Amino acid sequence: xxxxxxxxxxxxxxxxxxxxxxxxxxxxxxxxxxxxxxxxxxxxxxxxxxxxxxxxxxxxxxxxxxxxxxxxxxxxxxxxxxxxxxxxxxxxxxxxxxxxxxxxxxxxxxxxxxxxxxxxxxxxxxxxxxxxxxxxxxxxxxxxxxxxxxxxxxxxxxxxxxxxxxxxxxxxxxxxxxxxxxxxxxxxxxxxxxxxxxxxxxxxxxxxxxxxxxxxxxxxxxxxxxxxxxxxxxxxxxxxxxxxxxxxxxxxxxxxxxxxxxxxxxxxxxxxxxxxxxxxxxxxxxxxxxxxxxxxxxxxxxxxxxxxxxxxxxxxxxxxxxxxxxxxxxxxxxxxxxxxxxxxxxxxxxxxxxxxxxxxxxxxx
Length: 365
Ligand code: GLU
Known about the structure:
There is one protein chain. 52% of the residues lie in helices and 17% in strands. It has 13 helices and twelve strands. Helix 6 (146-168) crosses helix 7 (180-195) and helix 6 (146-168) packs antiparallel against helix 8.
């Protein structure tokens, strides 16, 4: 008991002291000046919300700033290139949005621990060519072997129609008129129902019967070809149906944001790239048919496809280039260590997952 009391006497002041030192150390950056944080609007990471920002990165930064007593002001820039320039020139001491950590950027800047796992993905326009549509069905009549098959179908009606009418017209029980018109039309109707596999009256003459059997066989054969052709032309349309993933991008009109990792990838892989300031401009160009695809950070694309772009766009293929986002600092920044500690702590104490859930739903891992 006595030992325990003694222990308390010695430990309490020690821990109080440690707390004071901790507070001084934590307050050190804030005591210096106001920190300028460069960012750019990019939902769902940075979303304008009144006079501040909301979004995953904004909320994450507000929490980090609170934990480290950092007083700060936001500096909004147009794109990631300008965030890098602002931090490089000393106009800002921190950069945060959806900034991918790359080896090239790492040479010039310091990054925090990864704050988000991301990667590049492809987004295309949603067309009504997907699934069944009448225009698509009619389209199949003019492609491949279809025109020939339609010609054969016409012959399958004309030839047996004439033969049967000619052979049967004089027969007393003939269902056809003895006159060429309308007799031949009646016989063609008969041939059409034979081609469709339905047989009404058996012809009475030998030629009539022979023609009827031949017509049924020919139509069976024809239907088999027709079906095969229909299936294959639908498959070809599906395969040609545009961009299914990154391998289809070379030579295509693509759009992304200025100075982004996606722009660099697209240039390296032979796509035609338009670099926009805002990703929204790329989305609009895609919807107006000016672009074949938008290539960008998967979470941004998925967020758009589920919200503003719902029913208009579609994200295709898997993430094809993994990237991590980091908080950007100038080389040797004194803020980095304490911010890294907060980031790790927020992963440990559940704050990170809570924020993730708010913006992206349940975390899969
Ligand atoms: N993750 C992208 C990059 O850092 C984002 C680009 C952007 O903010 O437009 O390159």
